[in-house]
Amino acid sequence: MIENAAVLPMFYLPPVEYFVLLNTYKPGILIEREEHFPKQTYRNRANIFSPDGVLALTVPVTKGAKNHTKIKDVKISYDFNWQRLHWQSLQSCYRRSAYFEYYEDELAPFYENKFDFLFDYNQQLLQFILKSIKLKVALSYSESYEAAYPAFADFRDSISPKKESDFNQKQYYQVFEERTGFQRNLSIVDLLFNQGPHSINYL
Questions:
Q1: Secondary structure class of 117 (helix, strand, coil)
Q2: pTM for the model
Q3: Residue 2 in this model has a pLDDT that exceeds 90
Q4: CA-to-CA distance for 103 and 112, rounded, in angstroms?
Protein backbone atom coordinates (compact mmCIF):
# COMPACT_ATOMS: atom_id res chain seq x y z
CA MET A 1 0.00 0.00 0.00
CA ILE A 2 1.28 3.45 -0.91
CA GLU A 3 2.11 5.45 2.20
CA ASN A 4 -0.80 7.81 2.86
CA ALA A 5 -2.91 7.31 -0.27
CA ALA A 6 -6.67 6.87 -0.37
CA VAL A 7 -9.52 6.66 -2.86
CA LEU A 8 -12.73 8.51 -1.93
CA PRO A 9 -16.06 9.19 -3.63
CA MET A 10 -17.29 12.70 -4.43
CA PHE A 11 -19.98 13.74 -1.94
CA TYR A 12 -22.42 16.65 -1.60
CA LEU A 13 -21.28 18.76 1.40
CA PRO A 14 -19.56 15.67 2.84
CA PRO A 15 -19.65 14.59 6.49
CA VAL A 16 -16.89 15.61 8.92
CA GLU A 17 -15.36 12.12 8.74
CA TYR A 18 -14.63 12.68 5.03
CA PHE A 19 -12.47 15.71 5.81
CA VAL A 20 -10.62 13.87 8.56
CA LEU A 21 -9.70 11.33 5.87
CA LEU A 22 -8.70 14.09 3.41
CA ASN A 23 -6.47 15.58 6.10
CA THR A 24 -4.99 12.18 6.98
CA TYR A 25 -4.25 11.11 3.39
CA LYS A 26 -3.73 14.57 1.84
CA PRO A 27 -0.51 13.73 -0.05
CA GLY A 28 -2.36 11.14 -2.16
CA ILE A 29 -6.12 11.56 -2.59
CA LEU A 30 -7.77 9.90 -5.59
CA ILE A 31 -11.39 10.92 -6.20
CA GLU A 32 -13.59 8.28 -7.86
CA ARG A 33 -15.12 9.71 -11.04
CA GLU A 34 -15.91 6.60 -13.07
CA GLU A 35 -18.10 4.53 -10.72
CA HIS A 36 -21.77 3.87 -11.45
CA PHE A 37 -24.02 6.16 -9.44
CA PRO A 38 -25.22 4.40 -6.27
CA LYS A 39 -28.51 5.66 -4.86
CA GLN A 40 -29.20 6.71 -1.27
CA THR A 41 -25.64 7.80 -0.49
CA TYR A 42 -23.89 11.03 0.45
CA ARG A 43 -23.09 11.56 -3.25
CA ASN A 44 -26.28 13.61 -3.45
CA ARG A 45 -27.26 13.92 0.20
CA ALA A 46 -26.03 15.84 3.26
CA ASN A 47 -27.18 15.78 6.88
CA ILE A 48 -27.46 19.04 8.82
CA PHE A 49 -28.66 19.88 12.34
CA SER A 50 -32.18 21.35 12.54
CA PRO A 51 -34.17 22.32 15.66
CA ASP A 52 -35.91 18.91 15.36
CA GLY A 53 -32.71 16.87 14.96
CA VAL A 54 -30.92 15.64 11.85
CA LEU A 55 -32.29 16.97 8.55
CA ALA A 56 -31.32 15.31 5.25
CA LEU A 57 -30.87 17.56 2.21
CA THR A 58 -31.02 15.66 -1.08
CA VAL A 59 -29.99 16.94 -4.51
CA PRO A 60 -32.47 15.38 -6.97
CA VAL A 61 -31.03 13.77 -10.08
CA THR A 62 -32.66 13.21 -13.47
CA LYS A 63 -34.70 10.08 -13.97
CA GLY A 64 -32.12 8.47 -16.23
CA ALA A 65 -29.60 8.29 -13.37
CA LYS A 66 -30.02 4.62 -12.62
CA ASN A 67 -27.24 2.33 -11.45
CA HIS A 68 -25.65 2.21 -14.89
CA THR A 69 -24.91 5.92 -15.19
CA LYS A 70 -21.36 6.94 -14.38
CA ILE A 71 -21.17 9.40 -11.49
CA LYS A 72 -19.52 12.02 -13.70
CA ASP A 73 -22.51 11.83 -16.12
CA VAL A 74 -25.32 12.12 -13.57
CA LYS A 75 -27.37 15.26 -14.19
CA ILE A 76 -29.09 17.36 -11.54
CA SER A 77 -32.87 17.67 -11.79
CA TYR A 78 -34.57 21.05 -11.44
CA ASP A 79 -38.15 19.75 -11.62
CA PHE A 80 -38.72 21.51 -8.31
CA ASN A 81 -36.79 24.32 -6.66
CA TRP A 82 -34.61 22.24 -4.35
CA GLN A 83 -31.93 24.98 -4.31
CA ARG A 84 -34.30 27.38 -2.59
CA LEU A 85 -35.31 24.66 -0.11
CA HIS A 86 -31.68 23.78 0.72
CA TRP A 87 -30.65 27.42 1.09
CA GLN A 88 -33.61 28.23 3.31
CA SER A 89 -32.81 25.15 5.42
CA LEU A 90 -29.16 26.14 5.80
CA GLN A 91 -30.16 29.67 6.76
CA SER A 92 -32.80 28.64 9.29
CA CYS A 93 -30.56 25.97 10.85
CA TYR A 94 -27.35 28.02 11.04
CA ARG A 95 -28.33 31.68 11.15
CA ARG A 96 -27.64 31.61 14.92
CA SER A 97 -24.25 29.89 14.54
CA ALA A 98 -21.09 31.89 15.19
CA TYR A 99 -19.71 31.89 11.63
CA PHE A 100 -22.56 31.42 9.13
CA GLU A 101 -22.45 35.07 8.05
CA TYR A 102 -18.72 34.78 7.28
CA TYR A 103 -19.39 32.23 4.55
CA GLU A 104 -22.92 32.87 3.30
CA ASP A 105 -22.01 35.29 0.48
CA GLU A 106 -19.63 32.77 -1.07
CA LEU A 107 -21.98 29.84 -0.53
CA ALA A 108 -25.17 31.51 -1.81
CA PRO A 109 -24.28 31.28 -5.55
CA PHE A 110 -24.31 27.47 -5.26
CA TYR A 111 -28.04 27.82 -4.55
CA GLU A 112 -28.70 30.49 -7.20
CA ASN A 113 -26.77 29.29 -10.25
CA LYS A 114 -27.74 26.11 -12.05
CA PHE A 115 -25.17 23.35 -12.50
CA ASP A 116 -25.73 20.58 -15.07
CA PHE A 117 -23.79 17.73 -13.51
CA LEU A 118 -23.83 16.50 -9.91
CA PHE A 119 -20.11 15.69 -9.91
CA ASP A 120 -19.13 19.18 -11.08
CA TYR A 121 -21.43 20.78 -8.52
CA ASN A 122 -20.02 18.68 -5.69
CA GLN A 123 -16.47 19.31 -6.88
CA GLN A 124 -16.88 23.10 -6.81
CA LEU A 125 -18.55 22.93 -3.40
CA LEU A 126 -15.64 20.80 -2.15
CA GLN A 127 -13.14 23.40 -3.38
CA PHE A 128 -15.11 26.12 -1.55
CA ILE A 129 -15.06 24.08 1.68
CA LEU A 130 -11.34 23.24 1.40
CA LYS A 131 -10.54 26.91 0.89
CA SER A 132 -12.81 27.96 3.77
CA ILE A 133 -11.20 25.56 6.25
CA LYS A 134 -7.74 26.21 4.79
CA LEU A 135 -7.08 22.54 4.11
CA LYS A 136 -4.58 22.06 1.29
CA VAL A 137 -5.17 18.73 -0.44
CA ALA A 138 -3.81 17.51 -3.78
CA LEU A 139 -6.76 15.86 -5.53
CA SER A 140 -6.47 13.60 -8.54
CA TYR A 141 -9.33 11.87 -10.36
CA SER A 142 -9.79 8.31 -11.58
CA GLU A 143 -9.57 7.81 -15.35
CA SER A 144 -11.24 4.38 -15.37
CA TYR A 145 -13.24 2.26 -12.94
CA GLU A 146 -11.21 -0.18 -10.84
CA ALA A 147 -13.02 -2.64 -8.56
CA ALA A 148 -10.06 -2.64 -6.18
CA TYR A 149 -7.10 -0.39 -5.47
CA PRO A 150 -4.52 -2.59 -3.72
CA ALA A 151 -2.15 0.35 -3.19
CA PHE A 152 -4.80 2.67 -1.71
CA ALA A 153 -6.96 2.76 1.37
CA ASP A 154 -10.41 2.42 -0.24
CA PHE A 155 -13.21 4.47 1.34
CA ARG A 156 -15.67 4.44 -1.58
CA ASP A 157 -18.31 2.48 0.33
CA SER A 158 -17.34 3.02 3.96
CA ILE A 159 -19.08 6.36 4.66
CA SER A 160 -22.80 5.83 4.17
CA PRO A 161 -26.04 7.24 5.59
CA LYS A 162 -27.35 3.66 5.60
CA LYS A 163 -24.89 2.34 8.17
CA GLU A 164 -23.69 3.50 11.56
CA SER A 165 -20.24 5.06 11.39
CA ASP A 166 -17.57 3.93 13.83
CA PHE A 167 -15.92 7.33 13.40
CA ASN A 168 -14.82 8.36 16.90
CA GLN A 169 -15.66 12.05 16.88
CA LYS A 170 -14.69 14.70 19.39
CA GLN A 171 -17.59 16.95 20.32
CA TYR A 172 -17.75 20.62 19.40
CA TYR A 173 -20.46 23.20 20.10
CA GLN A 174 -23.60 22.79 17.94
CA VAL A 175 -26.46 25.30 17.81
CA PHE A 176 -29.24 22.91 18.85
CA GLU A 177 -27.30 20.42 20.96
CA GLU A 178 -29.11 21.46 24.15
CA ARG A 179 -32.32 20.05 22.57
CA THR A 180 -31.19 16.69 21.25
CA GLY A 181 -27.56 16.30 22.32
CA PHE A 182 -24.48 16.27 20.11
CA GLN A 183 -25.10 14.89 16.60
CA ARG A 184 -22.17 12.94 15.14
CA ASN A 185 -20.73 13.11 11.66
CA LEU A 186 -22.97 15.76 10.16
CA SER A 187 -22.08 17.67 7.00
CA ILE A 188 -18.85 19.64 7.15
CA VAL A 189 -20.93 22.85 7.03
CA ASP A 190 -22.11 22.12 10.58
CA LEU A 191 -18.49 22.22 11.76
CA LEU A 192 -17.64 25.20 9.53
CA PHE A 193 -20.55 27.38 10.67
CA ASN A 194 -19.98 26.55 14.34
CA GLN A 195 -16.16 26.57 14.43
CA GLY A 196 -15.20 28.80 11.49
CA PRO A 197 -11.42 29.21 11.13
CA HIS A 198 -10.90 26.80 14.05
CA SER A 199 -12.27 23.92 11.92
CA ILE A 200 -8.80 22.99 10.63
CA ASN A 201 -7.52 22.57 14.19
CA TYR A 202 -10.48 20.33 14.95
CA LEU A 203 -9.68 18.10 11.96
A1: strand
A2: 0.94
A3: no
A4: 15
